[in-house]
Amino acid sequence: MGGMEEPLAGEDFRTEIDEVAGAVHTGSGDIIRVEKVEVAALRAADALRGLLATDEKLRDELLMVLRQLSALQAQLGEWKELHHILHEVSAAFSPFYASLHALDRAEVGSVDWRALLRGWRSCQTEVDRLADFESRVEHIRGSLRREGARAARPDWGARIGSLQRGMEERLREEHSDWNSPHSAEGLMDLADEFNQACDCYLNLADWELRRVIERVQRLYANFVGGLL
Predict the structure, then answer these.
(1) pTM of the predicted model, to two decimals?
(2) Where are the domains of the chain?
(3) Which of 22, 36, 122, 195 could serve as a FRET partner for 45 with CA atoms 20 to 30 Å apart?
(4) Is the pLDDT of residue 211 over 90?
């Protein structure tokens, strides 16, 4: 039919697909280069297996390096997730914290404490996520225990969760005088502690992320540095 192009066949069609797919990434030919690297990796793995079959010491040393890399990768993933959740907790807490500290410039008796409780809900959701994360965390907790003194640090979830419960109890008290300065000051003290705890553990997660990355880089450099 007039105006319709003939379909590409065989290698011409494959070449066209490679060119289009490569252009989607950083440049024409990227897909082909990835395939070559994968083939080279398979060949290198086959050769390495043959060598390790006759050298038990080398096999044990290689397995030790690979296990350490795997452990560091797992720790990196958990520290990254913890950092993200703590950032979300802090971001959700900020509006509530700002509203609470506005009490310093307002008549305490005119404060809508139930509105403050509603404002706390979004932060409560994020703290629940933190508690869920702590219940299933594995690799970074074991790492801290193995490093002695660091294991003495209180669990982030336990500390922040304790402050969460304290604030919720104060906000929900039915028999306290919500419009008293004492009640407002007590809640502010808890909020200050909560904010400090978030900052503390965010800094910890950031520091640990950097430390694990440095260990991975150092191990990688020692492992393949002489080959490149």
Answers:
(1) 0.71
(2) 93-227
(3) 22
(4) yes
